[in-house]
Amino acid sequence: MNLIDLILVEDDPMVMEVNEGFIKRIGGFRICGKARTGKKALEIIRNLRPRLVILDIYLPDLNGIQILKEIRQLGIPTDIILITAAQDVATVQAGLRFGVVDYIIKPFKYERIHTALNNYYSYAEQLQNRWEINQEDLDRLIKIHPHQDTLANRSREELPKGLREITLQQVYNFLKETPIGLSAEEVAEGVGLARVTARRYLEYLEKMDRVLLETQYGAVGRPINKYKIVL
């Protein structure tokens, strides 16, 4: 498969440089344009019509959601990955409603964007040079597509009282980045939550069958509960 054309939109030059390094390290993508403002981003997207745009929300002129809406209104066949510090549920839901393929919250680790781009590359590869698709292949593609792995698109009514979609997604993403099981204390420290709060999210994820609970016994002391992503 040929390299996938990608445009990077980020107003912070240091973050731009870091993201560019990550993308080059992952491979499979060609950065065909960069923009530090919303207006410049729209100009480049209109002219180049890339397959993928990595888009920040907080830009000096236009909001990233405004850019996303404009792209959709223009009918440009471009997919969007949002990488942003915006964590409020309204913004997350707006991004999902306008069809972003992934939503990555800053700060993030290399493994998170690596997973996002690998998933997207697999998704694009499966659709290449196809005119039709059957149900079996479509079901498999939907599982590959990174958007389908976003827990934040679940309705608020499904969550127990006191739990938030965005925090649930953060806990789940943190577990995904670690191949070994983690305790509630380790998750709490990694995500920035109280231990009792982290345990509530982990117990909910276990109830959803998204994580496995493993009890580990040491030589002395109490057993430790470890949570691991279900593969």
UniProtKB/TrEMBL annotation:
Q: Which InterPro entries match?
A: 2C-system_Tx_regulators, CheY-like_superfamily, DpiA-like_HTH, Sig_transdc_resp-reg_cit/mal, Sig_transdc_resp-reg_receiver, WH_DNA-bd_sf
Quote the subcellular location field of this record: Cytoplasm
> What are the record's GO terms for cellular component?
cytoplasm
Q: Which residues carry this modification: 4-aspartylphosphate?
A: 56
A GO molecular-function term, please? DNA binding
Give one Pfam family. HTH_64
This protein's record includes keyword Transferase: no
Show where the Response regulatory domain sits. 5-121
- PROSITE patterns, from UniProt? RESPONSE_REGULATORY
Which keywords describe this protein according to UniProt? Activator, Cytoplasm, DNA-binding, Phosphoprotein, Transcription, Transcription regulation, Two-component regulatory system
What role does it play?
A: May play the central regulatory role in sporulation. It may be an element of the effector pathway responsible for the activation of sporulation genes in response to nutritional stress. Spo0A may act in concert with spo0H (a sigma factor) to control the expression of some genes that are critical to the sporulation process.
Protein's recorded name: Transcriptional regulatory protein
The beginning of the lineage is: Bacteria, Bacillati, Bacillota, Clostridia, Eubacteriales
